[in-house]
Write a structure and sequence with these properties.
Elements (H helix, E strand, L loop, with lengths): L10 H6 L6 E4 L9 H9 L5 E7 L1 H8 L3 E9 L8 H8 L10 E4 L2 H12 L4 E4 L6 H5 L4 E4 L7 E6 L3 E11 L5 E2 L8 H6 L1 E11 L14 E3 L6 E4 L17 H11 L2 H12 L3 H16 L1
Length: 297
C-alpha cells in the first residue's frame, strides 16, 4: 500500500502554479489568519487579471493596490481596528477614469457569500436562500437571479450562484506533510469551504509536524483540512503577519497602523513598499523584526 504523498512545497512553487485570469479564493477573515506570505509572493509575481474571492483584509488591499485584481467578490474588506481597509477604500472611491478603481466588483451579504462557497463545495450551480431578498444586493448584482420553489408554497428565493474557485489559499496553525491541517485558535473561518470550493488548494502553516502531532495539543475536531482537499503545503512561520494567528501570535497593531497611514499617501506608500515589500519573504520577516525592535527601544 502506498504511503500518503509528501505535498511540501515552497511559497514560490505555489505561486508558480497560478496563472493570469484565475479565480483565487483567500481564506481567513478580515485581519485574521490570512495566508499573507502567499499574498506577498503574488505581489512579487507577474500575475494579473485575477478574480479574488475573500472575506477581505490586507490581502485584498495589497493586491488591489498592486493592480493584480480584475474582479473582486467580497462580503466586507476590513482590518477590524481600522474599519475599512485603506487600500480597498482608495480603489472603491476612485473614478473608473483614474485607473485606480477595481474594474469589476460583486458585493454580497455575508450569508450569501458563505452559501456561494457551499454551493461550489457541493458542486451545485446554486443554492437557494432568503438573504438578499428586498435588498440592494440584488439591484447592484443583476447577475444574481431568483428562483421559485417547486412545492406548494411557491416561495421566491435567491438562487445564490456557486463561487467556484480555481485555487484556494489558506493559512492554519499546524499541518503535516500530506496536507492535513488544524487550527488552534477560536474560529475555523470557513477555510475548509474555500478548499472544497476550489479545484486546487494550498495551505501555509506556522509549523509542519508529524501527523500524530496534529492532535497533541488540540481536540481532533479542530482537524479542519483533510489531505484529500489539499494540493500543497508550505511551512511559513509568521506567515500570516500582520494578521492574527491565535494562539501563535496576535495581530501586529503597530504595524497595521503604519500600513494604514502609508496607504493614505503615495510617497509614504512608496517608502513602505521599498522597506517591507521589495524583497522576498525572508527580507520581509527581517524588516518586520527590525520594525518591532524599534518599538522596544
Amino acid at each position: 500500500m502506498n504511503a500518503p504523498r509528501d505535498k511540501r512545497m515552497t511559497i514560490d512553487e505555489v505561486v508558480g502554479q497560478l496563472e493570469d485570469g484565475m479565480t483565487i479564493g483567500i481564506g481567513g477573515w478580515g485581519p485574521r489568519r490570512k495566508p499573507m506570505a502567499l499574498v506577498r509572493a503574488i505581489l512579487r509575481s507577474d500575475l494579473k487579471d485575477l478574480t479574488l474571492v475573500s472575506w477581505g483584509g490586507a490581502d485584498v488591499g495589497l493586491l488591489v493596490r498592486a493592480g493584480k485584481v480584475r474582479k473582486l467578490v467580497y462580503a466586507f474588506v476590513s482590518l477590524d481596528s481600522v474599519p475599512l481597509e485603506p487600500n480597498f477604500q482608495r480603489a472603491r472611491q476612485a473614478s473608473p477614469e483614474s485607473g485606480l478603481a477595481i474594474p469589476e466588483v460583486g458585493e454580497l451579504d455575508e450569508g450569501m457569500f458563505q452559501t456561494g462557497l457551499r454551493a461550489a463545495a457541493q458542486r451545485l450551480p446554486f443554492l437557494p436562500m432568503r438573504a438578499g431578498l428586498g435588498s440592494d444586493v440584488l439591484v447592484n448584482n443583476p447577475w444574481i437571479k431568483t428562483v421559485t420553489s417547486p412545492y406548494d408554497d411557491a416561495e421566491e428565493l435567491v438562487a445564490v450562484p456557486a463561487l467556484n474557485l480555481d485555487v484556494a489559499l489558506v493559512h492554519l496553525n499546524r499541518a503535516d506533510k500530506h496536507g492535513n491541517a488544524t487550527y488552534l485558535g477560536p474560529d475555523p473561518y470557513f477555510d475548509d469551504l474555500f478548499c472544497m470550493a476550489a479545484d486546487r488548494a494550498f495551505v501555509t502553516c506556522e509549523q509542519i509536524v508529524d501527523t500524530a502531532g496534529l492532535t497533541v495539543d488540540t481536540p481532533v475536531q479542530r482537524l479542519l483540512l483533510s489531505r484529500m482537499m489539499v494540493s500543497g503545503v508550505v511551512e511559513t512561520p509568521n506567515g500570516a503577519h500582520f494578521t492574527t494567528c491565535t494562539p501563535d501570535y496576535e495581530r501586529d497593531e503597530r504595524f497595521q497602523r503604519a500600513y494604514a497611514a502609508a496607504a493614505a499617501d503615495d510617497e509614504q506608500w512608496a517608502a513602505f513598499e521599498e522597506r517591507f515589500l521589495g524583497g522576498n519573504e525572508v527580507a520581509y520577516q527581517q524588516a518586520v523584526a527590525a520594525f518591532q525592535q524599534e518599538d522596544s527601544q
